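Input record, target 12 of the design panel.
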């Protein structure tokens, strides 16, 4: 029986490239001249932004989102935390969400069942496995989930016949 997996993953190499490009843009932008502002990748799933003022952090979030979209990473995976002071600088943490949380996985399974499509879906850790008798049914599920407004970017992989 054909099947595929629904996952939510971020390519860490592309994320590193996006952070590097955002840092490069900070050094060339006129409104950031003479300002001590930077992006720093901390661990696998966190970016720390440092600037002199709150409004600059807001601009930096937009710069990061634009660079991520250009690198093929959906900006929905960002979780922007509150700002905090650190000496004369202001910092803000941005978490990168990966994997389907239990609540979102249950919501996806429920949506598929309510759509009354001829497929079965099951939660397997941080992914949802969807199986069906026909490939067309699986493609209908993919189209259905792309139309749904979920707060996480979804990828569909491991498509098997």
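The sequence produced for target 12 reads:
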């Amino acid at each position: 029986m054909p099947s595929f997996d629904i996952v939510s993953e971020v390519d860490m190499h592309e994320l590193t490239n996006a952070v590097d490009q955002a840092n490069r843009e900070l050094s060339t932008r006129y409104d950031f001249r003479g300002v001590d502002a930077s992006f720093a990748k901390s661990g696998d799933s966190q970016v720390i932004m440092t600037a002199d003022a709150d409004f600059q952090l807001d601009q930096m979030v937009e710069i990061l989102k634009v660079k991520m979209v250009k690198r093929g990473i959906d900006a929905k995976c960002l979780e922007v935390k509150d700002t905090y002071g650190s000496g004369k600088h202001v910092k803000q943490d941005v978490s990168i969400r990966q994997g389907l949380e239990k609540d979102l996985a249950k919501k996806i399974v429920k949506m598929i069942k309510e759509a009354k499509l001829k497929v079965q879906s099951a939660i397997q850790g941080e992914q949802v496995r969807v199986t069906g008798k026909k490939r067309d049914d699986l493609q209908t599920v993919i189209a259905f989930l792309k139309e749904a407004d979920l707060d996480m970017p979804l990828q569909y992989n491991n498509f098997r016949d």
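Strands lie at 3-7, 38-41, 46-51, 78-86, 89-96, 119-124, 127-132, 155-160.
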